[in-house]
Amino acid sequence: MDSNNSSFSHILFNIFVPVFILNKGSKLGLTPLVALLIALAFPLCFGIYALIKEKKINYISLLGLLNILFSGVLTLMALDGIWFAIKEAVFPLLIGVFVWFSSLSDSPFFQSLFLNPKAFNVALIEEKTNTAEKKTQFQSLMKKSTQWLSVSFLLSAALNFALALYIFKPLAQTLSDTEKQELLNQQLGQMTMYSMAVILVPMMIFVGSILYFAFKKTADLTGLSLEELFIK
What we know:
By secondary structure, the chain is mainly alpha-helical. It has helices spanning 3-24, 32-54, 59-76, 81-102, 109-114, 122-128, 132-167, 177-222, 226-229.
């Protein structure tokens, strides 16, 4: 499977299909619980398939599964929108805090991503930063990049919270539990869909800028070209 088809299938089975089921489940004659279980099945099955075929965890499927699962529990409990806003903010907030604190350690989170011998020419980078001054500069770069990466997660948490508050409106008390669950399923589908454009795309640009900054500074520090940083 080429990368374009793989990316399309990831988005299709982990986002679009679950969103469609959550939005249209009641019109298809599905109860809120059945619609939720079917929506959960797609990222779950896709993640298991990827694990068996590629021998690694598909994090898009994992995040999609966890997101729908936690949202589904809140839906079945028919809780108000503020709880969904909190849930949408908690995941990126926790990750952002973890990443930030890692920048204060000797092993910044960004460094573990950057110094991957399967993607980067780690031996050559270490060879070119073998002086005490360059090692200090490189470590400072990894910490600074980690802190900027944590900012991206904290920004994502704020955007998630604001978007969830906008989408998950308070439920009328005159609605039955089933009607509340159906409405919440529809709002959950909208949240998943809109977060792609409102949150994911800007965050990809933000993170891409951080990566380019780190690559460019590493190239300047080592005297290597950007191409030489990567494994060919």
